[in-house]
Amino acid sequence: MAEPTADDPFAGDPRTNRERMIAGDLYVAEDPELARALRRAAHLADEYNALAPRDSDAAREILASLLGGLGEETQVRAPIYVDYGKHLTIGARTFVNFNLVALDVAPIAIGDDCQIGPNVQLLTAYHPTDPEPRRAKLEAAAPIAIGDNVWLGGGAIVLPGVTIGDNAVIGAGAVVTEDVPADVLAVGNPARVIRPL
């Protein structure tokens, strides 16, 4: 088996970039298969964003085809921005306010009965800190899981690999860099638990 080199970081790895991406390993985002999936998601999101204010029923059908899962009675206010869409699931009776950015390179699961404030960012993608792999356009991702009945305040940012437990509240503008347990209030940058609920 060939050893990885700077010229070929995937020597000996027969997987596609999509397979590496799904596994949470380094991959090259500038891949034709991934580019097609990105274009599909951008097209559907654009259709949804344009149609949602005028025809909520037709817009919901588009949103359901964009996302990996959309719960009953869930409301998503346009605009919404995603990478792939299919890796984002939103549970039942959840409300998502304007301008959700969900970089769903890895799975993002939002539970039931959540409140997602405006301008929230859910960011699964990340780049290597080492300059050489970053120059080679390598990236990776880690999933985000948001439990049931969670409230993410406006402008909150959730970083790769984070899990937020049921009933937690994340303050407006918080940057969530590590897991938050259930039934707590977390605020700040980086977000810290300040009290139980």
- How much helix is in the residues? 10-25%
The Rg value, from CA coordinates, equals 18 Å
Order of helices and strands: HEHHEEEEEEEEEEHEEEEEEEEE
The fraction of residues in strands falls at 25-35%
Number of strands: 20
In which order are the strands of the major sheet placed? 3-6-9-14-17-19-20
Name given to the CATH homologous superfamily:
Hexapeptide repeat proteins
Average residue-wise pLDDT: 94
Q: Pairing-aware structural class of the strands and helices?
A: alpha/beta
CATH architecture: 3 Solenoid
Distance linking N and C termini: 54 Å
Number of structural units classed as domains: 1
How would the global form be characterised? globular
The residue ranges in which pLDDT falls below 50 over 5 or more consecutive positions are none
The biggest sheet, with number of strands, parallel, antiparallel or mixed sense and barrel status, is: 7 strands, mixed
Helical segment tally? Answer: 4
CATH first level = Mainly Beta
CATH topology: UDP N-Acetylglucosamine Acyltransferase, domain 1
